[in-house]
Amino acid sequence: MTGKEIIQHLEQWAPKGIAWEKDNVGLQVGDLQTKVKNILLSLDLSDKVIEAAKKNKCNLIITHHPLLFQPLKSLNFTSSRKSKMIETLIKNDITLYSAHTNLDFTKEGVSYQLARKMGLINIRFLKNLPHNQLKLVVFVSESHLNKVADAIHKAGGGIIGEYSNCSFRSIGKGTFKGSDRSNPAIGQKNLVETVDEIKLEIVVDKWNLNSAIDSLKSVHPYEEVAFDVYPLQNENVNYGIGAIGELKQSLNSEDFFEYVSSKLRIQAFRHTKHVKSRIKTVAVCGGSCSELIDESINQKADAFITADVKYHAFQDAENKILLIDAGHYETEVHVLEELKKRLEIYLKRNKSIKVLKFKGSTNPIIFYNNSGVN
Q1: What is the CATH number of the domain that holds 276?
Q2: Average pLDDT score, the chain
Q3: Position 275 confidence tier, pLDDT thresholds 50, 70, 90
Q4: What are phi and psi of 227, to 5 degrees?
Q5: Which of 27, 42, 263, 271 is deepest in the core (most CB within 10 A)?
């Protein structure tokens, strides 16, 4: 099985099209046409990750954080750490792929896994992504209606939340007159024809539009296919940022701090003063999500867990919500287990490929703990 096949499966869950527009998701180094031996998962790429890949005969590494984010001005294999890693990947025929903000924004992605690690229930997106859906409208004869609809659905159209194959169909009349060079599927050239048609309307994510149009054209009976594409202002219920849910039972603030420490396996974190006596509704966002503080408050969360919170963001949240900075690595690393599970399910038919998680830590931040201080 090639890397391309594996990545195509991964991107059905976390499509590149939902990533932040300035992000660099996807292939970083290597060749996805290469047959995969084993796969190594890691939050980041490091020298130790590459060594682990070599030791375990992994020729595909999938990371969350991209190795290449800013344009490279040179590849200096003698002094640049990043360049040296690229050289090692190339020399060892190891392909590197990164799923970053597309893994953040997908259902059961980074924030969902943080919420599940926290034991939350009734999990949903904290804020759904807007303006990334279109409505594809096509006019077709009733005899080919289901064939055209099925083609669009197979191309990713018609998915709304937990429902697939969604469409709207209305009956109408279509008219046309073919020229001397036409070859109409219905009626005759040079005559104005009126035919019974169905107007088929299906919601399509922007990144699936071209595939959906190609698919409908491939099965549509008409020589010239009439279709419209409308931009939608809807929030996309299938993708979003952050997550929110409820604890199975409310906790007082001190017990909640112990709960966070235990669930996320962290010894230290920063936080604001207690606001409420009990914590029940909790918002989370893996990585840097201070911009969601107000949304968490609007959603009536009692606490918000994220990372990389600046001083003034803590000020803005004070007396409004219990804000916790639990660390960037600490809030994102949990997604690797979900990634591993999904890949293993997909690879059941190819048991020769193993999916491994990097056993070490790629977290560059170390907390100093002087337990002897009074």
Answers
A1: 3.40.1390.30
A2: 94
A3: confident
A4: -150, 155
A5: 42
Hey, how many other C-beta atoms are within 10 angstroms of the C-beta on 345?
A: 10
Domain extent at residue 266: 107-128+240-326
DSSP-derived secondary structure letter, 326: -
Residue 40: exposed, middle, or buried by beta-carbon count in 10 A (0-12, 13-18, 19+)? buried
Tokens for 139, please give them.
Answer: 């006019």
CA distances from 368 to 314, 333, 365, 371 (A): 22, 21, 10, 9
CATH code (residue 182):
3.30.70.120
Residue 210's identity, in one-letter code, is N
| Residue 158: both structure tokens together | 């018609």
Q: In what order do the strands lie in the sheet with 133-140?
A: 168-177, 192-205, 133-140, 227-231
Identify whether 368 is part of a domain. Answer: no
How does residue 371 score in pLDDT terms, banded at 50, 70 and 90?
low
**One-letter amino acid of 134:** L
Work out how many domains the chain is built from and give that number: 3
CB contact set of 13 (below 8 Å; sequence gap of 6+)? 106, 108, 342
